[in-house]
Specification:
6-stranded antiparallel sheet, Aminoglycoside 3'-phosphotransferase, Chain: A, domain 2, 2 domains, single chain, globular, alpha+beta, 8-stranded mixed sheet
Length: about 450
């Protein structure tokens, strides 16, 4: 294995003065910007690292930047900013703006991941285990990375940005950065140690070590060439009027295998009355907040609350549950089917809006199951004409597949399943009201069904 490469990285202390006016306009328009609806009032530069000098070619800066908004200091974001004298036509969609002040005055700033040379530099840094300023490029033992893989940016993601290298690897760069252990690296590494084939093992990763804190900035994994996204696959089958139960059953088996491997790899805990009370209180609090945000939810609030209090009543009677590490945000879009029909689970980051510590808490495995069941319901309402029978068939097949793989049939614990499905649907109502109001009817229909007919 090659030795780590150590490179110097210096930046002008006035770099932010050049970029600030442009980023205030550009950043809020990104799909992955979490503070939408509020203007950016300023920035704090957490760290700046120059990766390419820009002498006779493109310059490249890696920034960790905290955005300030009217409510106070906001989130920290990872940016890769390129600078050129002028952009070639192929990079026009990546334009950030023309710099008029500071050390970069006269240059054009752009989103560097769309440029071949900066993307190639990231691959080379991972391949050689480079150390550049506070950045640490690491590679898993025994993993080799070819240096000539051609990069291309994927454009379909929401909260992160991914670069595919030669249909061999995919590098996911996190946009919203938090200090601490990121489950999107932690859990796939643990599953790799267990030999679980359902999750691509990390090949390499990028970290920052700053002021005694560690930040995971990106993870590279094998790219499943020709794989079909579970959501797109489900919609195609729905559009053709095709049955999806065989795939749903296979997805259930894959989910159970991942849960079993996680239970072997990482500690499990028992949830008794005290722990369940905290969990239920959180569900009720989210319901109360949601009812304030979305008035259409208020008539259903008493019935929804009963789903949570029923769970607390079981715990008070002495019932216990096992909790473990789970995916945390499982749905059809987090699953890939290879051309050979093998299902993989990806994106173990959890819900990006939640703190890392909360995402890493042990949970009952039914949390993931509930997420997938809600995803079947969404798909059934996304194909023009609603197909509730399709969703019910997928639900049954998924739970059966889960039980066949040793996970226990989720339907045998209906109170727990109802509580988690209800909690997920409430989350969906708030999300759609804020971001996709045209979709609000989908989770509201589920809410009405839960209150009127149960699951």
């Amino acid at each position: 294995m090659s030795e780590a490469v150590v490179r110097s990285a210096t930046t002008s202390p006035h770099l932010l003065a050049s970029l600030d006016p442009l980023l205030r306009e550009w950043l809020p328009r990104r799909r992955w910007f979490a503070g939408k609806g509020r203007p950016v009032t300023g920035f704090t530069l957490v760290e700046a690292t120059r990766l390419l000098p820009g002498e006779g070619g493109p310059g490249l800066y890696h920034l960790l930047l905290q955005a300030h908004q009217p409510s106070g200091p906001g989130d920290c974001y990872q940016l890769l900013i390129g600078v050129r004298e002028a952009l070639p036509p192929r990079l026009a969609p990546a334009l950030i703006g023309h710099v008029t002040e500071g050390p970069l005055a006269g240059l054009t700033a752009y989103e560097a991941l769309f440029d071949t040379r900066p993307a190639e530099l990231l691959l080379e840094a991972l391949r050689t285990r480079a150390r550049i300023g506070g950045l640490r490029f690491d590679r898993a033992p025994g993993q080799e990375i070819r240096p000539t893989l051609v990069p291309r940016v994927m454009t379909a993601e929401q909260s992160n940005t991914s670069v595919v290298y030669g249909d061999t690897f995919i590098l996911k760069l996190f946009r919203r950065i938090l200090p601490g252990v990121n489950p999107d690296l932690e859990l796939p590494l643990a599953l790799a140690r267990e030999g679980c084939p359902r999750v691509p093992a990390p090949t390499a990763w990028l970290r920052a070590e700053l002021a005694g804190e560690s930040y995971v900035l990106g993870v590279m994994q094998p790219f499943v060439q020709g794989a079909a996204d579970g959501w797109e696959l489900a919609l195609r089958e729905l559009a053709k009027g095709e049955d999806f139960t065989a795939e749903a059953r296979a997805l259930g088996r894959a989910t159970a295998e991942v849960h079993t491997a996680l239970a072997r790899a990482l500690p499990t805990v028992t949830l008794g009355a005290a722990q369940l009370r905290v969990l239920v209180d959180g569900m009720i609090d989210r319901l109360d907040v949601a009812a304030q945000v979305v008035p259409a939810l208020r008539p259903y609030a008493p019935g929804l609350r009963s789903a949570f209090t029923a769970l607390a009543d079981l715990a008070a009677e002495g019932r216990t549950w096992t909790a473990q590490r789970v995916h945390g945000d499982l749905h059809l879009g987090q699953c890939l089917r290879s051309p050979a029909g093998h299902w993989s689970l990806i994106d173990f980051e959890g819900e990006p809006s939640k703190p890392l510590a909360e995402r890493r808490l042990p949970q009952p495995t039914v949390r993931d199951v509930a997420g997938m069941l809600r995803s079947f319901d969404y798909a059934a309402h996304s194909a023009g004409r609603p197909a509730p029978g399709w969703a019910r068939a997928c639900r049954a097949a998924y739970c059966s597949g889960y039980a066949e793989a040793g996970g226990g049939d989720p339907r045998t614990d209906p109170v727990l399943l109802r509580a988690y499905e209800t909690d997920k649907a409430i989350y969906e109502v708030v999300y759609e009201a804020r971001h996709r109001p045209d979709w609000l009817a989908v989770p509201l229909a589920a809410i009405e069904r839960y209150v009127t007919h149960g699951m």
